[in-house]
């Protein structure tokens, strides 16, 4: 029994070491950002020229009371030789509840913890005059190798009033690449395109 246990332990260790090596990193190639002027005044600032160190700072200034925030997150990849998109997952999150209890969704929590290290996100409800600042550095958001090394699309839509009114939406297009292939992708002259 012990040799089997030792063998399983060694195989698991080897799998874990390989999983760490095949992390994928997003390099943003295009983004679109739109807020509802009825609820928020929104802006985005891009800091850094190097695609690996580029940060995107999203700022929201609340104009009207927001008591709930329902968020729809979708991760898609390019399919059929670029003809279409295939959604890998879609997640519906109660934003206010998630901020109160981040452990309620472990997958989203992994990204949330990395983003909140350098962001200012307060709890719901949001009142006129409140500000929210979200700092996103895509290269710090390594993805597991279950996401293919291809073009990737990440869409976020946030609603209020029982999911009837859009507060903001953003679309991010990126190239997912392994660490060793980053230089190849960057050599193709990546300029971030907006709108």
TrEMBL record:
Keywords: Signal
Signal sequence annotation: 1-19
Domain of life: Eukaryota
Protein's recorded name: Neurotransmitter-gated ion-channel ligand-binding domain-containing protein
């Amino acid at each position: 029994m012990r040799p089997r246990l030792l063998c399983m332990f060694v195989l698991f260790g080897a799998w874990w070491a390989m999983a760490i090596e095949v992390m994928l990193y997003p390099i943003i190639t295009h983004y679109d950002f739109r807020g509802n002027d009825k609820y928020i005044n929104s802006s985005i600032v891009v800091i850094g020229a190097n695609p690996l160190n580029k940060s995107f700072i999203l700022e929201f200034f609340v104009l009207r009371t927001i008591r709930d925030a329902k968020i729809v997150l979708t991760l898609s990849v390019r399919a059929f030789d670029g003809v279409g998109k295939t959604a890998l997952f879609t997640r519906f999150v109660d934003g206010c509840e998630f901020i109160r209890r981040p452990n309620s969704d472990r997958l989203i929590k992994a990204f949330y913890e990395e983003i909140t290290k350098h962001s200012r996100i307060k709890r719901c409800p949001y009142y006129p005059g409140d500000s929210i600042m979200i700092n996103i550095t895509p290269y710090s958001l390594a993805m597991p190798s279950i996401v293919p090394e291809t073009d990737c699309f990440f869409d976020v839509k946030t609603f209020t009033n029982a999911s009837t009114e859009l507060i903001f939406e953003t679309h991010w297009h990126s190239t997912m690449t392994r660490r060793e292939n980053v230089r190849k992708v960057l050599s193709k002259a990546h300029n971030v395109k907006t709108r």
